[in-house]
């Protein structure tokens, strides 16, 4: 799996969670999506962890600045398995 | 319904979307799934998908506590909405609940909640001293925690008249402290247990405990917590437990405005017993302790009786000939449910929905107070379509899971304590004083009397044969001759006029012991020989053997015998009864290593008085 694959999967998750359509790109960040507040974020993470069967370490998702970095983190945790 | 089907209904703006959403949401136990369903709901509202059915006025619901209440509030709001009880939410700030409650001018009271859900912080439910402190001191602190929680609930209720739902505390699930955890009140384990107990037992009627301890236990303690979720976003529990917590809060909310169900209407074949009585016959159905399946059905009946004891009315709705179905209730020895347990018995060939309607009319109850239970999906479907007010439970394929299905249906839960309950408590107290008196009486006779034993003695009947055969083939200790016989051999004995056999069932104040003794005797001239005499060791020293001898003598005399003959055939396991006949006043006739023969003249015999009430004797009419 590479970043493109991860982004494609993220797109389906975003489609389920957000009411307004959001196009997933590597540079997309939470600031650009009105519905993506700190609260939706929690639900998003739970869904991502379940979908990819990964578990992030405490605090590390906060360190990613956009969807591309987030996808890389998912890849990193996937490779550990 | 699959998520993709729901999405299609949503795309088409179909009103059926709402029913599908409600069903999927009720069943959802997974956080992501429930969250996605909530997103669909919001989309449907935004697109104004038309909705049938009554939607109640919004309930003003305040959520506050020592945790972040997101995304819990999202799940609560969603479940309320899809159930047709939407709420208007007010959320307290993280860990600000004490001032929100205690401050008369707080935003909480400005909101004027009708219901307040409070999740007190577990970090304040912890003993602050040493593990080795005196227990009284630890206990005092636990009691203070409880009083302060009760005080918070009281304040909310007093200020806003709101009903209060309060979570109690999860227990730790790590090995910390080891076995010592339960030897001190200072451990979180014991301290929180104590607080939870006192909180529940002392809660006033307006306070409804949301039993987080139980929910976490059900989930599995380790999976109920997630430390990362606390460090990152101050969650009350793991994401895995959040849906369960939300479902429970909404369940308690709904219980505030709906009564428990009143009537449990039951199918018969493959519901109360295994098999079809019209095909398999009364002695062919599976019920009772001779097979695992039979045991499962009997256990289901026993659970149903506990529902009756809690006040649920029981009824039967079955597709059967009345006489065939009724015979099982009247004659089958392993039936736990009897005719007088039922308020209505409809066994006929009318549609079950019609029968339920008729029953509701006769009992003067609404159809919405009925729960209908069947193993047949077609019958469930008919009732869903033609009597949709009735709640239905479709039993699964395995009868060992029937009890759990009813236990988890959540339709018969008692509500808060009433004054009648309080009256019952008083009654109980005087009862227990009586019991204490009884317990202090040390003589055996008084003890046996207090057991209120009742026995039914029955000649062998075809229905009983499997159980009689089972006892004959497994009893080792209290068994004078250890003669094994198959069910077929026993059936042959039934037709042999020289033989007479009977079984004894015993019950007492504490329950039913079932079939516990079997005797087979054979008339040879004017002598009645005791071919088989055995008894379950569970009922030793209960005077059952005295009553069996009384019965043997009675039957012997009726058959014009002048003497009983008993045999003891020693085995490696039956030494318990080596002196049994002499103890029963039989005289030894002859004895060698392999057998002993005893006799008892019948003419001078007088029955022994016992504390067992004989309900019926062999060959007597029912």
Q: What's the gist of this structure?
A:
The complex is a heterodimer of chains A (81) and B (622). Chain A has helices at residues 3-17, 38-52, 67-80.
Features:
A: 81 residues; mainly alpha; 3 helices; globular; B: 622 residues; alpha/beta; Rossmann fold; 8-stranded mixed sheet; 5-stranded parallel sheet; 24 helices; 42% helix; elongated
Question: Could you walk me through the main structural features you see in this protein, from its secondary elements to its overall organization?
Answer:
- The complex is a heterodimer of chains A (81) and B (622).
- Chain A has helices spanning 3-17, 38-52, 67-80.
- With 81 residues, chain A is mainly alpha-helical.
- Chain A has a single domain, classed as Non-ribosomal Peptide Synthetase Peptidyl Carrier Protein, Chain A, CATH 1.10.1200.10.
- In chain A, α1 (3-17) crosses α2 (38-52).
- Chain B is α/β, with parallel strands linked by helices and 622 residues long.
- The two termini of chain B are 53 Å apart.
- At the A-B interface, α2 of A face α3 and α11 of B.
How are the SSEs ordered, and which strands pair?
The complex is a heterodimer of chains A (81) and B (622).
Chain A: H1 3-17, H2 38-52, H3 67-80
Chain B: H1 3-11, H2 16-27, H3 31-46, E1 59-65, H4 72-82, E2 87-91, H5 97-102, H6 107-111, E3 115-119, H7 135-160, E4 163-167, H8 188-202, E5 207-210, H9 212-219, H10 221-224, H11 227-233, H12 242-255, E6 263-266, H13 277-280, H14 292-309, E7 313-319, H15 322-331, E8 342-348, H16 352-363, E9 370-374, H17 377-386, E10 391-394, H18 402-407, H19 419-440, H20 444-450, E11 454-459, H21 465-474, H22 487-494, E12 499-508, E13 511-524, E14 527-535, H23 544-558, E15 563-568, H24 580-583, E16 587-591, E17 596-601, E18 613-616
Parallel strand pairs in B: 1-2, 1-3, 3-4, 4-5, 6-7, 6-9, 7-8, 9-10, 11-18, 14-15
Antiparallel strand pairs in B: 11-12, 12-13, 13-14, 15-17, 16-17
Helix pairs in contact in B: 1-2, 1-3, 2-3, 3-4, 4-12, 7-8
């Amino acid at each position: 799996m590479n970043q493109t694959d991860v982004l494609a999967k993220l797109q389906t998750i975003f489609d389920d969670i957000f009411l307004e359509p959001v196009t997933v790109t590597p540079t997309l960040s939470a600031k650009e999506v009105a519905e993506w507040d700190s609260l939706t974020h929690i639900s998003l993470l739970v869904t991502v962890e379940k979908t990819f069967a990964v578990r992030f370490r405490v605090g590390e998702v906060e360190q990613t600045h956009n969807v591309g970095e987030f996808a890389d983190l998912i890849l990193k945790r996937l490779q550990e398995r | 319904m699959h998520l993709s089907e729901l999405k299609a209904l949503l795309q088409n703006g179909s009103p059926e979307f709402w029913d599908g959403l409600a069903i999927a949401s009720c069943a959802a136990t997974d956080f992501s799934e429930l969250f996605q369903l909530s997103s669909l709901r919001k989309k449907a509202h935004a697109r104004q998908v038309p909705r049938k059915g009554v939607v109640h006025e919004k309930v003003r619901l305040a959520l506050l506590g020592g945790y972040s209440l997101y995304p819990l509030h999202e799940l609560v709001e969603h479940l309320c909405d899809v159930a047709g009880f939407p709420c208007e939410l007010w959320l307290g700030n993280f860990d600000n609940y004490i001032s929100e409650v205690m401050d008369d001018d707080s935003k909480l009271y400005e909101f004027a909640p009708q219901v307040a859900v409070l999740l007190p912080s577990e970090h304040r439910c912890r003993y602050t001293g040493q593990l080795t402190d005196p227990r009284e001191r630890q206990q005092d602190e636990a009691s203070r925690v409880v009083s302060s929680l009760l005080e918070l609930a009281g304040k909310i209720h007093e200020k806003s008249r709101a009903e209060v739902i309060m979570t109690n505390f999860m227990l730790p699930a790590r090995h910390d402290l080891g076995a010592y955890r339960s030897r001190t009140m200072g451990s979180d384990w014991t301290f929180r247990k104590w607080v939870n107990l006192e909180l529940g037992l002392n809660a006033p009627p307006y306070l409804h405990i949301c039993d987080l301890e139980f929910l976490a236990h059900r989930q599995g303690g380790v999976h109920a917590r997630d430390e990362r979720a606390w460090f990152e976003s101050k969650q009350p529990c793991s994401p895995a437990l959040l849906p369960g917590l939300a479902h429970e809060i909404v369940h308690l909310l709904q219980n505030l405005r709906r009564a428990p169900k009143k009537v449990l209407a039951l199918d018969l074949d493959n519901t109360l017993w295994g098999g079809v009585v019209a095909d398999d016959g009364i002695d062919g159905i599976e019920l009772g302790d001779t097979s695992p399946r039979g045991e499962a059905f009997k256990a289901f009946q026993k659970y149903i009786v506990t529902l009756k004891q809690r006040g649920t009315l029981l009824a039967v709705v079955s597709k059967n000939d009345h006489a065939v179905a009724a015979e099982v209730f009247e004659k089958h020895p392993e039936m736990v449910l009897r005719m007088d347990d039922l308020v209505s018995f409809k066994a006929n060939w009318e549609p079950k929905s019609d029968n339920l309607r008729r029953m509701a009319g006769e009992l003067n109850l609404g159809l919405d107070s009925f729960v209908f239970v069947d193993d047949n999906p077609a019958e469930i479907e008919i009732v869903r379509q033609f009597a949709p007010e009735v709640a239905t439970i479709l039993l699964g394929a395995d009868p060992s899971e029937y009890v759990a299905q009813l236990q988890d249906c959540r339709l018969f839960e008692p509500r808060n304590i009433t004054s009648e309950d309080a009256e019952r408590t008083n009654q109980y107290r005087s009862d227990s004083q009586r019991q204490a008196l009884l317990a202090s009486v040390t003589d055996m006779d008084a003890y046996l009397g207090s057991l209120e034993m009742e026995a039914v003695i029955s000649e062998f009947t075809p229905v009983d044969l499997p159980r009689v055969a089972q006892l004959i083939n497994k009893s080792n200790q209290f068994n004078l001759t250890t003669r094994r016989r198959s069910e077929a051999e026993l059936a042959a004995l039934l037709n042999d006029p020289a033989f007479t056999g009977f079984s004894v069932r015993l019950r007492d104040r504490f329950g039913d012991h079932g079939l516990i003794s079997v005797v087979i005797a054979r008339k040879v001239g004017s002598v009645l020989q005791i071919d088989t005499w055995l008894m379950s060791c569970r009922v030793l020293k209960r005077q059952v053997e005295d009553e069996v001898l009384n019965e043997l003598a009675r039957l012997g005399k009726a058959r014009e015998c002048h003497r009983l003959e008993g045999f003891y055939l020693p085995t490696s396991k039956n030494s318990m009864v080596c002196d049994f006949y002499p103890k029963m006043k039989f005289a030894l006739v002859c004895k060698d290593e392999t057998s002993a023969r005893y006799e008892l003249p019948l003419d001078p015999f007088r029955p022994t008085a016992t504390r067992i009430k004989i309900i019926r004797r062999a060959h007597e009419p029912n």
